[in-house]
Amino acid sequence: MAMISCPECQQSVSDSAFKCPKCGVQLRKPKRGFMGKLFKWGFIAFNILMAIWIVGGTSAATKGYDTMSSAEQAGTAIGAGIGVTLLLGLWVIGDIILGLLVLFTRPKVA
User: Fold this and answer.
1) How far apart, in whole angstroms, are the C-alpha atoms of residue 101 and residue 3?
2) CA 19 to CA 66: how far, in whole Å?
3) How many helices (H) and strands (E) does the chain have?
4) Quick one: which of 36, 39, 38, 20 has its CA closest to 28?
5) Residue 1 has pLDDT above 80, yes or no
6) CA atoms of 31 and 53, how far apart (whole Å)
């Protein structure tokens, strides 16, 4: 365990300390563990996937919209609206669950 000097108060502090015990300045940032990184990247990937899924679903639902009859257009609009609503609900529920996992696995200062 080596000793370093605090950049603020110049007191000798352990190099494994996160904060100076005298002045409280942050010396180094805590790092996430493996599960924390996994949940964080899973959260990011889930949000990207959901955004792609909604954009792709709405663009596929409106393909050929100009050549449809008015009844087909109404059915397409209603179906696409229901689909997007369900996807948004799934997105919110997934974000809450994954967000809590990311929050609970954040790095802690000793």
Assistant:
1) 35
2) 64
3) 2, 2
4) 20
5) no
6) 32
Does the CA dihedral 68-73-75-76 come out positive or negative? positive
Mean pLDDT across 65-83: 91
Closest CA to 87 of 59, 49, 60: 49
Burial readout 20-45 (b: 16 or more C-beta within 10 A, e: otherwise): beeeeeebeeeeeeeebeebbeebee
- Closest residue by Cα to residue 90 from 58, 38, 50, 55: 50
Distance of CA 4 to the CA centre of its chain: 35
Q: Do the Cβ atoms of 19 and 4 come closer than 8 Å?
A: no
What confidence category does residue 7 fall into, taking pLDDT thresholds of 50, 70 and 90?
A: confident
- Model-level pTM? 0.73
How far, in Å, CA of 60 to CA of 51, rounded? 14
User: Is 6:13 a contact under the CB 8 Å cutoff?
Assistant: yes
Q: Is 102 within 8 Å of 68 (Cβ atoms)?
A: no
